[in-house]
Amino acid sequence: MPFNQNQMREIRPAVPGGEMAELLALTLARAAPLEAGDGISGAALAGEWVIAAAVRGSVVVNTGSRCSLLQPGQTLVFQEPGPFEVQAVSDCLSGVIQMRGELPGRVLRDRLVQREALFHDGASMVRETIMSLIVMENERGPVDGGAASAKAYDLLVKLAGLPVDVRRTEPSSSPLVESAIGIIQEEFPFLEGLDELAQRLEVSKSHLIRAFTKQTGIPPGKYITKVRIDYAKLLLEDVDASITYVAEASGFANANYFAKVFRRETGMSPSEYLESAPRRSQPVHRQTPPIW
User: Fold this and answer.
1) What mean pLDDT value characterizes the chain?
2) Apex 21 CA angle, 16 and 24, nearest 5
3) Using an 8 Å Cβ cutoff, are 84 and 97 in contact?
4) Angle between helices 255-266 and 220-236 (to 10 degrees)
5) How remote is the C-alpha of 185 from its chain's centroid?
6) How many CA atoms lie within 13 A of 128 on its CB side?
7) % of the chain with per-residue pLDDT over 90
8) Taking the CB of the first residue and of the last residue of the chain, which one, N or C, has fewer CB atoms within 10 A?
């Protein structure tokens, strides 16, 4: 069934076979929309790693020994057995991934301090990983352990390439920017552009661009493009996908413009990506994009 971003969603992949189970096994992925003050609880087994991300809004991650505030976009990786909680400071979308094995510690060894790392970015990567797993389960049923491990490894490599954030007091997140991110993530296929977004938020376009860029580090137009391209990549893995359909479903005006933007953002044309991307034997459900 399509993912409803107003509901919790959990993915529990099967255990991978052979040596992969010892190297890397993704045990749980959770998409968690939360209202301010609400929280979700979890528990990490001995040797298990937890990746918590504030996709939209701010959250606090509490464990037996730490209390970490994550601003929008930030990601926390830690290894500490026992219960933990992710609590919303503001209405938010959070993501939690748990994994075990030798590879997380190896891949992130240069980023960890006392088996913990805080990244200023990375939440979009966590979101993309969970969204991919949701699509896989929607289309093929229980997620294969090997496929989940591959997604986990890809995420670890991407996180390892990010600079570690220095713990410091950050300015509180802007309600305007949080609202803009929410509209973009929920309605990107239908947005006409920044003029419409600014009008709905009841601010000038120039003010929206300044506030959004200051808070997130990228202009809102670039963020809209990134979300659209990320979703287009998922659709292009469908064996029945046509470039015209993918362009329209991702929010682009036409296939030619989509192809131009896709090449600029990825370095290849949609046709080249079609040839290189792993293809699904089942089509992606097209009624509602699985976005959160």
Assistant:
1) 84
2) 100
3) no
4) 100
5) 11
6) 21
7) 44
8) N
